[in-house]
Design a protein that fits this description.
By secondary structure, the chain is of the alpha+beta class. The protein has a single domain, classed as 3-Layer(aba) Sandwich (Aminopeptidase). The chain contains five helices and seven strands, in the order βααβββαβαββα. It has a seven-stranded mixed sheet with strand order 1-2-3-4-5-7-6, with helices on both faces. Strand 4, helix 3 (94-108) and strand 5 form a beta-alpha-beta unit. It binds coenzyme A (COA).
Amino acid sequence: MEPSTIVRQAELGDINDIIKINRLCLPENYSFDFFYRILTEFGFACAVGIEDGKVLGYLLSRVERPFSTFIGLNPAKGHVISIAVLPENRRKGLGVKIMKYGIQKLIENNVETIYLEVRVSNIAAVEMYKKLGFYVKREFKHYYRDGESAYVMEWGQKQANEEIEEEKSLL
Ligand SMILES: CC(C)(COP(=O)(O)OP(=O)(O)OC[C@H]1O[C@@H](n2cnc3c(N)ncnc32)[C@H](O)[C@@H]1OP(=O)(O)O)[C@@H](O)C(=O)NCCC(=O)NCCS
């Protein structure tokens, strides 16, 4: 990744670039309205990687608040909806940088757990998520339209803190 590559919050003005990258990189595509809604409601948790004014990658994520009658019983969760980096810009650290930005923003919005779905064959993404501290929570059989299964991967604030403590005690 060039030193001039920056990661910042995604804005509505980035929507067409984000849609282009999504269509180029992933079979899971969404309507313009869906992108618009996510960027409007959860723009704080969405990011783009930019170099020389060009969008090279994006992250869409949102905060989900499961309904519960009891306060605190169902805490808000972060959901990584979609992430992609243009093919020619991969393996330079941008995916991780964009994800770290999103994780930080979700934490700042009181999220302690973040989850996502990923195709079981998507080694690059699964490895990147593992590198970031996500673990495979379960497998969803035939989750995608073409019949492929998904891993549901999860990242937890508590677990991340425990790992930091463990690393400290090994020093
Ligand atoms: C997944 C994706 C976003 C990663 O972006 P990236 O900018 O290449 O990621 P990074 O350079 O930050 O790589 C981080 C780590 O992920 C893992 N990784 C990335 N690409 C990999 C590959 N092709 N094979 C194995 N591991 C890979 C490695 O552990 C890598 O660290 P390393 O380079 O130090 O070994 C990118 O491959 C992509 O856009 N794929 C298509 C869209 C997609 O699948 N999105 C996820 C949907 S759930």
